[in-house]
Amino acid sequence: MISMGMCIGAFLVIIIIHWVYNWRNPRCNGKLPPGSMGWPLLGETIQFFAPNTTSDIAPFVKDRMQRYGPIFRTSVVGRPVIVSTDPDLNYFIFQQEGQLFHSWYPDTFTEIFGRQNVGSLHGFMYKYLKNMVLNLFGPESLKKMMPEVEEAAKNKLKRWSGQTSVEMKEATANMIFDLTAKKLISYDSDNSSENLRESFVAFIQGLISFPIDIPGTAYHKCLQGRKKAMKMLKTLLEERRAKPRKEQTDFFDYVLEELQRKDTILTEAIALDLMFVLLFASFETTSLAITLATKFLHDHPLALKELTEEHEAIIRRRENPASGLTWKEYKSMKFTFQVINETVRLANIVPAIFRKALRDVNFKGHTIPAGWAIMVCPPAVHLNPAKYQDPLEFNPWRWEGVEMNGASRNFMAFGGGMRFCVGTDFTKVQMAVFLHSLVTKYRWETIQGGDTLRTPGLQFPNGYHIRLSEKDEKIQ
User: Fold this and answer.
1) Angle at 97 between CA 93 and CA 100, to 5 degrees
2) Which DSSP string corresponds to 395-438?
3) Is 421 among the annotated ligand-binding positions?
4) Per the domain annotation, does 309 fall within a domain?
5) How many domains are contained in the chain?
6) Cα separation of 418 and 415, whole Å?
7) Is 257 a member of any domain?
8) Local structure of 391: helix, strand or coil
9) 137 SS3 class
10) pTM over cut 0.90
């Protein structure tokens, strides 16, 4: 009896050892990139989600780059992952979208953003939704929207100048959310019985957190924030259906028309997930970029001086100095675009872009097995000292004479390939218009003890406090 028990125990030990060995040494029809799969099932998930408290590449990635090189393997939330910090592989991945790779995100991300979110869709459905979004964020629509963007910036800056201090990340997020929500769903925060922005705040705070859905955890609060926001959007959809409008006044009206077409491929679930993602992406990422631009300019007087001169020259060239910005003036802002490029390079708003290999892919002597996830890491490219001299330094002049209409091997702040962010122009317009209103009318100073903004950590930072005053007044 004892010998039988010992045999069973020994057999179980052998099975466990075999399982652990296979976990740490995955099978591959070629040569896997170097790396570690971590503990069985858990992998290196805890290390991956550890916050980055530096302005450099996240320690999880940087440590492994130094140990294994620019391409390495790991395991996160139970999935084998190839991490790429190699510009050539990143570019190859983006160019082979739909052929060798397609968009993929961990189950925890799809749970957060919705299983029918635009990032998880492929082929014709993705192109269909992309064209829908371009109806709102394309150049022709932005030309018409520019006066509203400028008016919103002017009004907010005027209000902020009368306050003792302004927390820039929160203030700009509110400004952009109000404008975007109005264009998308005619939402007016001042006259609404429910605070839609609050739901997104809860959502954002747990967006990059350890995926444990237990009451009290950041991840649980994130899911609850999404649930509340989706409930509000669904209620609005039902109200619009009950009382349809005669003319299109916002993006929701356009979506409703698509849903009512007999030959539509759009479903209610996809439409609601699309609205949720657009509301989130349009304000949260842009507000971070604007906040960082404000901080960088304050910390670099020469850059602020050149930017101010560019915008003051625009006003001097007008027949009526009080008239609003035109599209032609916007397109003429050469140094402004240099500032924007440098800001988003350092901001690294999207710390990771995920894809999945559709079949075995060989690249630079390594094999990426079919079905494995690939994590493209933009910060490792943007902060590469081999490409960018003093990569942690804010230097907009490095972009002088560089035409940047899309992604490149060394610049992927807005993604790349066919999934290049459709909101890129919207972000640039909002940043340029805000900076125009800021530097031509105001001066500002950082409030001591309020400068705690960090980037590009796997979290959405805040804490950058400033004091604003009009240029004809002294800062108290």
Assistant:
1) 75
2) -GGGGTT---SS-BTTB-TT--GGG--TTHHHHHHHHHHHHHHH
3) yes
4) yes
5) 1
6) 9
7) yes
8) coil
9) helix
10) no
Q: What is the dihedral of CA 41, 42, 48, 53, to 10 degrees?
A: 180
- Cis geometry, peptide bond prior to residue 456 (ω within 30 degrees of 0): yes
Rg (CA), the chain: 24
Element holding 444 (H helix, E strand): strand 442-451
Question: Cα-flanking dihedrals φ and ψ of residue 465, to 5°?
Answer: -100, 135
On whether residue 5 sits in a domain, the answer given is no
Residue 221, token pair as written in the block: 């609060």
Using CA atoms, how far apart are residues 125 and 200, in angstroms rounded to an integer?
Answer: 26
Domain harbouring 40, CATH code: 1.10.630.10
Beta-carbon contacts of 354 under 8 Å, excluding residues fewer than 6 positions away, are 103, 104, 105, 106, 109, 373, 374, 375, 376
Flag whether 466 is in a domain: no
pLDDT per 10-residue tile (average), the chain, 476 residues: 62 56 66 84 78 80 92 87 93 89 75 62 69 78 90 94 90 88 76 64 62 73 79 83 76 82 82 80 82 94 96 91 90 95 88 88 91 92 92 94 74 77 85 96 80 43 81 54
Q: Which domain holds residue 329?
A: 19-456
The first and second tokens of residue 18, run together, are 């075999």
Instruction: State both tokens at 461.
Output: 């930072």
Helix (H), strand (E) at residue 234: helix 218-242
Query: Is 210 in contact with 191 (CB distance < 8 Å)?
Result: no
